[in-house]
Amino acid sequence: MLIHATVTIGGAAEERQVCEAHLSRSLAGQLRRSDVTEHHGKEALCYDLKVEGGIPFPVFAQASQEFPGLTFTVDWVNVAAGERGQATFVAGRLEAQSTERVGSAAGTAHPVYVGVAADGKLILAMTLEQVAGNEWRGYGVTATRDALLRVRRDPGTNALELHATEGAPEWALAWTGRFPGRRLSRERLRNPIAIEDRAFEELDRLAREFAAAWIWFANASEQEVAIERDRYARYGYTSADANVRSVRLHAMRTEGGEGKPLEHSTFSTDEAWLKDVVLATWAREQG
C-alpha cells in the first residue's frame, strides 16, 4: 500500500543541521531518491515521503534518540487502507500517537469533493449526505467562508433549490432554477428559514468532523496551526482563512502533478451534479 507521510523536525538550528546530515545518509540507504522530497525551512526540517509497505519509523526514532533536543512529528495518510495518523518522537520516545479511519473522520460514507488551485488556495471543500429521496444536506468551505448547505431537485423537471447559511442556524441564501440548463437566480431571504435543532446538531457534527480531517483555519490557536503555516510557506502555497491540511494537499499534489489545479472527489457520476451546482453558485461568490 502506498503511504504519503510528512516528517517535520523542530528544534535548535545547530542540532537540526547535524541531524539533516545524519538523515541524509540513513534515508539514502533505505529509500530511493524519488521517494523523498525535502522542504527545509528556517525553523524546521521537513521530509515528504511516498513509500510502499510502511513508514520508516525506525530511522526517525533512532535519529530522535541521537538528537534528544529535537521534536519529530510524523503525519501520514494511507488512502488504500482508509487511515490517517500522527506520531511525535522526543529523545527516542514515542510521546504521542493517534490514528483514525479516514472514512469516519472525513464523512466519506457521504461523497466528498475538494478542489484546490495550483497555488494551494482552497476553491471548495464539501461533503453532503442524502436525507430524503431528492434532498441533500451538508457543509461547504472556501478559502474565505463556510456554510451549511441544502440541495433539493425534482428529477423529472430538473427544478433545483439550493440554500445556504450565513453564520446562524437558518437558511439565509437561496438559488433557484433548473440545473443543468438555465442559470440559477440568487436571493437573500427576507425571512430566513430556521433549521430545526436536531437537524442543525447533525449538520454541525458533520461539518466539524469533515473540517477536522481536511481543513485548517487561520484563526485557530498558533499552537494548532504553526506546523501547517510552516509547511505552506516552504511549499510556496498561498494560505487564507481556510486551507486544506498539508498532508492531504501533499497526497493530492502527488496524485495530480506539480503546477496543476488539484481535485479529490468521491462523488459518483450520478452525484457529480451536486458539487457542480455548488461550484457554480455559492462557491463562486467572494466574501
Description:
Helix 1 packs antiparallel against helix 2 (57-66). The longest helix is centred in the last third of the chain and has 18 residues, at 197-214. The chain is elongated, with a radius of gyration of 21 Å. It has helices at residues 13-28, 57-66, 102-106, 197-214, 222-235, 246-256, 272-280; strands at 2-10, 36-38, 44-52, 71-78, 83-90, 93-101, 112-116, 122-132, 135-141, 146-153, 159-164, 170-178, 185-194, 215-217, 242-244, 262-265. With 287 residues, it is an alpha+beta fold. It folds into two domains: 2-102, Alpha-Beta Plaits, CATH 3.30.70.1270; 107-284, no CATH class. The strands form three sheets. An eight-stranded antiparallel β-sheet has the order 13-12-11-10-9-8-7-16, sandwiched between helices. A hairpin with a 4-residue loop joins strand 4 and strand 5.
